[in-house]
Amino acid sequence: MTDYEIFELGDVVLQSKKTLRGAKLAYKTYGALNAKKDNAIVYPTWYSGQHYENEWLIGEGMALDPRKYFVIVPNMFGNGLSTSPSNAPEPYNQARFPNVTAYDNVRQQYRLVTEKFGIESLELVTGWSMGALQTYHWGALYPDMVKRILPFAGSAKCSRHNFVFLEGVKAALTADAAFQDGWYRSPPTKGLRAMARVYAGWGFSQAFYREELDIKAMGYASLEDFLVGFWEGIFLPRDANNLLTMLWTWQNGDISNNEVFNGDFPKALAAIKSKAFIMPSKTDLYFPPEDNAFEVAHMPNAELRVIDSIWGHFAGGPGTSPADVKTLDAALRELLAS
Amino acid sequence: MTDYEIFELGDVVLQSKKTLRGAKLAYKTYGALNAKKDNAIVYPTWYSGQHYENEWLIGEGMALDPRKYFVIVPNMFGNGLSTSPSNAPEPYNQARFPNVTAYDNVRQQYRLVTEKFGIESLELVTGWSMGALQTYHWGALYPDMVKRILPFAGSAKCSRHNFVFLEGVKAALTADAAFQDGWYRSPPTKGLRAMARVYAGWGFSQAFYREELDIKAMGYASLEDFLVGFWEGIFLPRDANNLLTMLWTWQNGDISNNEVFNGDFPKALAAIKSKAFIMPSKTDLYFPPEDNAFEVAHMPNAELRVIDSIWGHFAGGPGTSPADVKTLDAALRELLAS
Q1: Residues belonging to chain A with any Cβ–Cβ distance to chain B shorter than 8 Å
Q2: Chain centroid offset of residue B323 CA
Q3: Of B315, B310, B325, B316, nearest to B208 (Cα)?
Q4: Where, by residue number, is the active site (chains A, B) (predicted)?
Q5: Which among B61, B81, B235, B296 would be 20 to 30 A from A245, CA to CA?
Q6: Are residues A54 and A143 in the same domain?
Q7: How many helices (H) and strands (E) does chain A have?
Q8: Is A190 helix (H, G, I), strand (E, B) or coil?
Q9: Distance between CA atoms of A257 and A272, rounded to whole angstroms?
Q10: Of A198, A218, A246, which residue sits at a domain end?
């Protein structure tokens, strides 16, 4: 009883020169591919998110309207549905799961799109946060295939500050002795809860907390209720090794760190020919607009559109802030019409 | 062989209605009190800091010149020199150490200033971060005694976002099983290192890391060298219960949360008659200038002077950023001359 499909990838050699044998790409599609196969959109998942957690931006009457478009949501490796530490067979399971890059992810997503569906052109690639990281990869790696991109609250390369923020998240999770270097038999709940508390200060802005939007907009009874109910609630059900796998993917995100661009970041940005709206949140504490401004200056066809929101990183998703959803939806509509 | 003095406080009843028996206030003075006793400055310590870590702002030729002023640096309760979990006798030692407020601290500092030295007027109270919190308390509680205050990179009340940031720090430290609910016999080093990594993303700004000032200005060889050498180096030598005691003091900082103001924060701000320069750092991630702007709007004699720096919270101290030290020193000079 699953609501998603599996694309069998076979044996996948990763950038790390390790092999995921019998790798699987879990995905879900919305709408129908037309006869000309020219109405497809790819919309990758975010850190820890699964395909259904992308659905807030898909719907009849919205820009990503399944009556018009064929929306493919591929699940990231490590997210628990595609091949992950929690579901990989021995010997590459749990703590032995290999490092996977965003490049590795997008290369396999490309296979899904082309081999499974025979699609040669994409109307749009879009995504939030790590979904944005994958979006940039699509633009840089397949410039003749991708007509438009709209990465939001993300970046083409993990900044040093963003890396440090994630070091704190990782340290909190792994400080729990129950983590047992990744060989736990039951979840390291203390570490997962600690990680959630560390994340809480980063996810929303100073102004969000000052205005008490956790209570007044999201309906929690108190700050502590928000920390437990929302934040610990996000991370407790997820697998610790999966979270660490995706965290590594995030920290090492860089569209130029591959055989195509050999670390030349400006060159990789310049390769993104797609028409692009780059949409950071003005108050995002780990994806500040300044990093995107650098990107846009090196991209031939990109426009910086800062979301004027106090919801911090969560201006971008996952549907938490209704006003920001409208802003994103309107931008997607405008971009798709162009 | 200590470089500080002890003022015996006797039995101190705290706001929490617990009694610190035989409490001690460790302090150090710089310069000499003049005959009229009208050249004194109080300069409280910051989170985890001890008196010698305040000395970067004191010196001949600087605004806080010991040839002219008598500078008193009182150590905060919980900092390991004044009465703290690490040095308190049973039964209030270690994990049983009571909660101490900034109000508790400043009330005892007042006793040191008046009972020990017979001082009736202070030229200035100043401090960084939690030192700023204590500075605001001095202004609100002793308005006829304090001529001037200059709190920098701090606030009169812990904001909700700041509280959440500290929840992350606390959760990382206490996730370590070696912490043993505060009854450790050897330090919970994994938790202390995790706490340091969490703190690292908060202490300096996104721009600081983007510009690689950890390497280019502070001389570390790499980002990881900075995380270990600077950040883990700060917290590893400090006692975990002490850190948690001061963290509680910080999280519960509020100049109005006492019998004088009964929780009326605007009223407490309005009580600060001292001429005040309020100096946040423009890029401070947990003491953003917006919170200080609210304060200044309610203070009768205060001016907001934002430090234009990318050093984040560390624009304020402890002497890490030479340009910002000059800015602070010049402001102190101007305020003292007025």
Answers
A1: 159-161, 163-165, 167-168, 170-178, 190-191, 193-194, 197-202, 204-210, 212, 223, 227, 285-286, 288, 290-291
A2: 21
A3: B310
A4: 129, 284, 313
A5: B235
A6: yes
A7: 12, 8
A8: helix
A9: 15
A10: A246
User: Are A283 and A208 in contact, with CB atoms under 8 Å apart?
Assistant: yes
Residues B18 and B130 in one domain: yes
Statement to judge: residues A35 and A135 lie in one domain: yes
B164 to A291: CB separation less than 8 angstroms, yes or no: no
The values of phi and psi at residue B329, to 5°, are -60, -40
What CATH number does the domain containing A77 carry? 3.40.50.1820
Distance from CA of B300 to the nearest CA of A (A): 23
**Whole-Å CA distances, B246 to B46, B131, B292, B315:** 9, 12, 22, 21
Rg (CA), chain B: 19
The DSSP annotation for B212-271 comes to THHHHTT--SSHHHHIIIIIIHHHTTS-HHHHHHHHHHHHT-BTTSSTTTTT-HHHHHHT
Q: In the numeric block, which tokens belong to residue A27?
A: 């995905």
Answer yes or no: do B209 and B286 share one domain.
no
Report ipTM (2 d.p.).
0.95
pLDDT tens track for A15-59 = 999 999 999 999 999 999 999 999 999 999 999 999 999 999 999
Residues of B with CB under 8 A from a CB of A: 159-161, 163-165, 167-178, 190-191, 193-194, 197-202, 204-210, 212, 223, 227, 285-286, 288, 290-291
Give the residue from A161, A211, A216 with the most B CB atoms within 10 Å of its CB, the best one to mutate.
A161
Note whether A48 and A234 are within 8 A (CB). Answer: yes
DSSP at A38: -
- pLDDT-based confidence at residue A316 (cuts at 50, 70, 90): confident
**Does A66 share its domain with A203?**
no
Same domain, B33 and B107: yes
Evaluate if residue B188 carries a pLDDT over 90: yes
* Active-site residue flag, A144: no
Measure in Å the smallest separation between the Cα of B84 and chain A Cα atoms: 25
Q: Into how many domains does chain B fold?
A: 2
Position with higher pLDDT, B316 vs A236? A236
Q: Dump strand ranges (E) for chain B.
A: 5-13, 19-30, 40-42, 70-74, 124-128, 148-152, 275-278, 302-304
A313 is catalytic: yes
Whether residues B190 and A212 touch (CB distance < 8 A) is answered with: no
Q: Determine the residue of chain A that is closest to B212 in CA distance.
A: A160
Whole domain around residue B207: which residue ranges? 162-246
